[in-house]
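Chapter summary example.
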Amino acid sequence: MAARVTLADIARASGVSRFTVARILKGETKGKWAVSAERIAEIKALAEKMGYRVNSAARATATGRFDAAALLTPNEGGDYLPIGVVRALVSHLAEHDQHLVIERLPRDQLGEEDRLPKLLRELSVDGFFLSHATDLPPALLHLIREGGGVPAVWLNAPERFDAVHPDDEGAAYQAVHRMYQTGRRRIAYQPPLYGPPLIRYTGDTRTLAGWDVIDPKKERHYSQSARESGYLRACAELGVAPQVFTPLPRPFADAVQAAEATMAAHTFDAVLAFGDPAPQIWRLAAARSGRRLPEDLALATFAWEHFDLAAEGLSGMVLETWHYARSAVDLLQAKLAEPTVRQPCAVVPWVWFDGGSV
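The structure predicted for these 358 residues follows.
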């Protein structure tokens, strides 16, 4: 096995001191020495050519930082984070010379009083991305909300501070307006499948950041209420009579039959579906009922990636994962700099994608 390349090896090969090499590789030369940009580039290229790798343990000992963040998700399932978001988190962290660690933990472990501070050491990370969006242990909620000094950022949760979440209410509101602009006047809403309808319209829900935390016993995720609220607000503004369908049953075949029955019993010319597999069910039900998309029925939904809609010829609201992940990483950097300071949440907008079904 070849010997590990050290800073001293690079210093001898480049004809400068070990100290200078260290500062150059850390990017700390600006305003300190009259070292030309060309010379800096040469030394960095030499280090790469020689196969130099940072000694993470030594750096952590010297700086007190691991240059890593952990993504905590529940091993029981129930929280959804697309792989595109994970890849984007990795890319944006790399811009800060940091890497991502993924850890799946039971919720009851996170409920232990000092669990998060211990995890910083056990996982060798400086902070966390929390993807536990529902049914969170009270001890964990208290620790993060009160700014307990643990750098953590919520993902896809409607917290007022230290959180990044999509503007689900605004997305549904915009989708209804888009369908209305095409001449649709009887626009229905399909809530999530296999669960109770969740309608909570308070008249003005334009900022999710101002909401109190939703009781997880009453619903699985805040986005259910948020999207319904956006739909209802748009209907009220446009003078459209709202139609909120009941959730479709399991299995898929029964859901299609239920959608066909709904189509026969109600009058509507557009459906805004919460998300997969609802739009696929409504597409099939429409085809079986002899209704064409978009001539006879407009169909819109929500997706995390453009290609999810493009591949199926669907229109809807898309959350740009690159923007979402950058907001999360930027917020974590602020938390790392000032762990006890609560940072305003970042609400990420959706964009409309015309896939041909509206």
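To summarize the output: The chain is about 40% helix and 15% strand.
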